[in-house]
Design brief:
alpha+beta; about 70 residues; about 25% strand; Double Stranded RNA Binding Domain
Length: about 70
């Protein structure tokens, strides 16, 4: 499990946008729970991809302790 930063935006049309402050992962949904769930799934897939590329994985590992807003993935 990793702690990673995210931003949550409540839109004018009452939908929610969830995005990563580091990765270019953005989801939007009618409910906050679904938006976070979809974002978490996309981020988990991205992390699995990063593990295949050692340089990027090492960067992620070094950054993960410096975040100040967290979500459990």
């Amino acid at each position: 499990m990793y702690n990673l930063p995210l931003s949550i935006i409540k839109n004018d049309d009452w939908t929610f946008t969830v995005l990563s402050n580091i990765f270019n992962i953005v989801t939007e949904w009618d409910s906050l729970e679904e938006a976070i769930s979809n974002w978490t799934e996309a981020l988990a897939c991205h992390i699995e991809w990063l593990k295949k590329w050692d340089d990027e994985w090492q960067i992620l590992q070094s950054l993960k302790n410096s975040f100040n807003t967290y979500v459990n993935v």
